[in-house]
Amino acid sequence: MHKTKRTFVLILIAMLIISLGCATMHVNVATVTVGELINESRTIALENAQQVRATVKMGAGDLKIDGGANELLEADFTYNVVDWKPEINYTVADETGRLVVRQPNSEQIAAYSAARYKWKLLFNEDVPLDMRIEYAGGSGELDLGNLNITRLDIQLGAGDLMLDLSGNQSLRNLEFDMVTGKTTLDLNGDWAENVYVNFQGGVGQTTMRLPQAIGVRVITNQALGRINARGLSKQGNAYVNDAYGVSAVTLEINIQAGVGEINLEIVE
């Protein structure tokens, strides 16, 4: 009975968020002015920072994050609403950089057909990063396998998101919170140390690609929906691969999901 009530609450919350998003779009469409397409590029120097805490806040649109920057950040922005001109703030204190890339008036942007909003953010692959991404929705492609990310926190409202961490060896903690949408998390790789993942999903479909040679343990607490596990065996309320308990390193995943489908796939 408790689980049933919790499921209904999750469904109602998801429906409320979606309906509020639609209401916001309806109210604010008339308040924005769509103009000519603007393309801007910005480069942020690392300065003397030895580590950086980076925050990316985007309302809705196309978001791409990758490595390959010579400086701390090389950014390309495409937009056609002047009020949504992206803002960048970077400060350094005690050799720690604090970077914020944000979209102003994020409460206004929604699925507005005439608006164009696209970010491409390239980060330095050597500097240690503590990264937080707040993404209301759209189409996202986060290729973070080559970045030196130690901690990653992602808040996703709605949309399709591809998070590729394959090849990453620096990550220790991943927090992923999704309201609704379709996501793919590629966690395959030769992890150097234990990695802890906490995933909270509302409504939608999530696919996790998992390593074969590294021990994997997935603990699930799903109110309603389906879990498909390929290449893993059931062990109590958890799913484990053959390398679990054998390899020196473990990928520990805790899943708390509401309504939807979870696909667990061992990459061979």
What is the mean predicted local confidence, pLDDT?
A: 86
Main sheet properties: 14 strands, mixed
Unreliable stretches covering 5 or more consecutive residues: 1-30
Radius of gyration: 20 Å
Strand runs, count: 14
Structural class from helices and strands? Answer: mainly beta
The share of residues in helices is 10-25%
The termini sit apart by 40 Å
Strand fraction equals: over 45%
Name the shape in a single word: globular
Query: DSSP helix count?
Result: 1
Task: Provide a short characterization of the protein structure.
With 268 residues, the chain is mainly beta. 10% of the residues lie in helices and 59% in strands. It has one helix at residues 2-28; strands spanning 34-44, 51-67, 73-81, 87-93, 96-102, 117-123, 129-143, 149-164, 173-186, 195-210, 215-230, 233-235, 238-240, 250-266.
Model description:
The chain has one helix spanning about 1-30; strands spanning about 35-45, 50-65, 75-80, 85-95, 95-100, 115-125, 130-145, 150-165, 175-185, 195-210, 215-230, 235, 240, 250-265. With about 270 residues, it is mainly β. It has one domain. Strands 1, 2, 3, 4, 5, 6, 7, 8, 9, 10, 11, 12, 13 and 14 form a 14-stranded mixed sheet that branches. β4 and β5 form a beta hairpin.
List descriptors.
268 residues; 10% helix; disordered N terminus; globular; 14-stranded mixed β-sheet; mainly beta; 14 strands
SSE layout and pairing:
Elements: H1 2-28, E1 34-44, E2 51-67, E3 73-81, E4 87-93, E5 96-102, E6 117-123, E7 129-143, E8 149-164, E9 173-186, E10 195-210, E11 215-230, E12 233-235, E13 238-240, E14 250-266
Parallel strand pairs: 2-5, 2-6, 2-7, 7-8, 8-9, 9-10, 10-14, 11-14
Antiparallel strand pairs: 1-3, 3-6, 4-5, 11-13, 12-13
